Structures are given as structure tokens and as C-alpha cells.
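TODO from last week: model HNH endonuclease.
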Amino acid sequence: MARRSKPPVAAPAAPAETRCQLCERAVQHTSRHHLVPREEGGRYGPTVDLCQPCHSSVHLLLTNRELARRYSSVQELQRAEELQKYLHWIRRSRVERLTNRRRRR
């Protein structure tokens, strides 16, 4: 009688990469950013997927009021003068996570 062979074991899948909609880099994880902040009335408004460094930097460099009034689309965020130096740096970087990004009050 012939021996049964075991079915081949599938190799673990590589983690799926997604794109940050602000810096346009391929990253492992993204988080949902409300284009109009929730506290400014954007609870049910449009959202975009941002990597953690971009999401953290947007909220570090811009107030919620500025985000609601001046930067309610990804294209406007990409053109924001306050983010240009950051975007130039992050697009050349492989950073996946930034820590300790809160402003000191």
C-alpha cells in the first residue's frame, strides 16, 4: 500500500503593504485620519489612511481649526507650507513609527 504524503504547508504570507495617502510611501500599517477633525464637525466626513508618522506630524504641526478650515483634502495637506520640510524628509525615509511626538504644554 502506498504511503500518503502530507499536503504541502503554505509559507506564511508576507504582511500586506498599504500606501500612506499623504507621503505616498508603502507602509505596514495606516490609521484613519478625519480630514475635518471630529471636534470641528467632521465625525461623519471623509477620511484618509495615513501612516503613523504622518498622522502624528499633521496633528503636531497643525491645529484642528486649521485642518477644518484650510486643509480638508489630501491635496491641500500635501501643499501645506507647515508640512513641506517634514514631507521632504519622510519620503526619503523608511521610518514606520515615531515616538514622543506630543507638544510640551
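Done. Residues 18-90 form one domain.
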